TrEMBL record:
GO molecular function: imidazolonepropionase activity; iron ion binding; zinc ion binding
Catalytic activity: 4-imidazolone-5-propanoate + H2O = N-formimidoyl-L-glutamate
Residue stretches making up the Amidohydrolase-related domain: 71-412
Co-factor requirement: Zn(2+); Fe(3+)
Similarity comment text for this entry: Belongs to the metallo-dependent hydrolases superfamily. HutI family.
Organism for this UniProt entry: Clostridium symbiosum (strain WAL-14163)
Protein name: Imidazolonepropionase
Ligand binding (Fe(3+)): 80, 82, 250, 324
Gene Ontology biological process: L-histidine catabolic process to glutamate and formamide; L-histidine catabolic process to glutamate and formate
Amino-acid positions noted as binding 4-imidazolone-5-propanoate in the UniProt annotation, renumbered to this chain: 89, 152, 185, 253, 329
Originating gene: hutI
InterPro entries assigned to the protein according to its UniProt record, in alphabetical order: Amidohydro-rel, HutI, Metal-dep_hydrolase_composite, Metal_Hydrolase
Keywords: Cytoplasm, Histidine metabolism, Hydrolase, Iron, Metal-binding, Zinc
Length: 417
């Protein structure tokens, strides 16, 4: 057995307790001053003050890791990304800077559909290679678990290829990958006006193969005006649930359609985006098990108003924050940017942002019993920040403070400052 002892953390953030954390609970991050963590192999064995843990052990049996002057937190969980794709769409970003809207770009052939051909033309090996490079960047930002979606093929072969690439990456890369099938990510031109027919094609031809190869744990749909309406989205989600998929939904991003309400009544693990969520949708999410996953970097890149995080938290919602890394609306996985946007523009405290990036992100991918907090029995997914307090995270604005990443008890990243 390998034994490691992290001691003298200036601030140890545990995020322990019931998951997910809702409303006022999000401010309770279980902070321990002069904290310590005992790691046995890949699991957390004990957590407490350094003084308490010193009395429990024979130091000769442990590798000692000195965390003096450091902040120690659970590994971040990026619970919404589209990180495996081919090609780029830098031209669209320029169009938006000139005033074109996201929906107008989609209508002229850009948007999601513009990524289809490059992804179709890429080999599985090429997708693994670009995916690995993106995972390396995520790891540097302290992300130890990531959700990845398909959705850039919208045909059987390419959807399976994306998911197989993620399955291979999960085997070879330290970052754990939770896979989501997002076949109904957009409407192919030949199916415009025949959205239900397109969904039936996914249900009958593609998703059984996804299940047969165990390629995806979740199913997702882009419920949006001009894409998939509430009725078609509900039909798809119910069929996906019958097939054994856990559910997610892209909801109320550009228009208030009732996506948050749909997430609540269909039992989605998370409703994501939510810039235009209604008061009733917020109330229903607060009273259900849905995680409200907010993607502020997307709003930032699209120059849209941010999701009403403060209203959601004050209403009792469980809020998560994720990057939405994708080739179009948000080509970034910068965790410090998410911290800054959450604290400065969404009126969240740093404690709430940390909760949103750890234990609530873990709950959004149904992993809160394994990751997202530093507690006995959980995976030893732990990160060290350069500075001694969580308050440096928004203060040293958009600067990556991650110095060391421990994944499953092993050091997998260390930056020499």
């Amino acid at each position: 057995m390998t034994k490691r002892y992290i001691r003298h953390a200036s601030e140890l953030v545990t995020c322990k307790g019931q998951a997910p954390k809702r409303g006022k609970e999000m401010s309770d991050i279980g902070l321990i001053e002069d904290g310590g963590v005992l790691i046995h192999d890949d699991k957390i064995f004990a957590v407490g003050t350094t003084e308490e843990l010193d009395k429990m052990i024979n130091p000769d049996e442990y590798e000692i890791i000195d965390a003096t002057g450091k902040t120690v937190l659970p590994g971040f969980v990026d619970s919404h990304t589209h990180f495996v794709f081919g090609g780029y769409r830098a031209d669209e970003f320029t169009w938006r800077l000139k005033g074109d809207s996201y929906m107008s770009i989609m209508e002229r052939g850009g948007g999601i559909n513009a990524t289809i051909n490059p992804t179709k033309n890429a080999t599985e090996e090429e997708l693994v290679a670009v995916g690995r490079e993106r995972l390396n960047r995520m790891l540097e930002f302290g992300v130890t678990t990531v959700e990845g979606k398909s959705g850039y093929g919208m045909d059987c072969e390419t959807e399976l290829k994306q998911l197989r690439a993620m399955k291979e990456l999960d085997k070879i890369h330290p970052v754990d990958i939770v896979t989501t099938f997002l076949g109904p990510h957009s409407v192919l031109p030949q199916y415009k006006g025949k959205e239900r027919e397109f969904i039936d094609m996914m249900i009958n031809e593609v998703m059984p193969k996804v299940k047969a190869e165990d390629l995806a744990e979740f199913a997702d749909i882009f419920c949006e005006k001009g894409v998939f309406n509430i009725e078609d989205s509900e039909y798809y989600l119910n069929k996906a649930k019958e097939m054994g998929f856990k559910l997610k939904i892209h909801a109320d991003e550009m228009f208030s359609l009732g996506g948050a309400e749909l997430a609540s009544r269909t039992g989605c693990f998370s409703a994501d985006h939510l810039l235009k969520a209604s008061d009733e949708g917020i109330r229903q999410m607060a009273e259900s098990s849905v995680i409200s996953t907010l993607l502020p970097a997307t709003a930032f890149c699209l120059k849209e108003e941010y999701a009403p995080a403060r209203k959601m938290i004050d209403s009792g919602c469980a809020v998560a924050i994720a990057s939405d890394l994708n080739p179009g609306s948000c080509f970034t996985n910068n965790i410090p940017l998410l911290v800054a946007l959450g604290c400065i523009y969404m009126n969240m405290s740093i404690e709430e942002v940390i909760t949103a990036l750890t234990i609530n992100g873990a709950a959004a991918v149904d992993r809160a019993d394994q990751i997202g907090s530093i507690e006995e029995g959980k995976k030893a997914d732990i990160i060290f920040l350069k500075y001694p307090s969580i308050n440096y995270m928004p203060y040293h604005t958009t600067i990556n403070l991650v110095e060391t990443v421990i994944k499953n008890g092993e050091t997998v990243y260390h930056k020499e400052w």
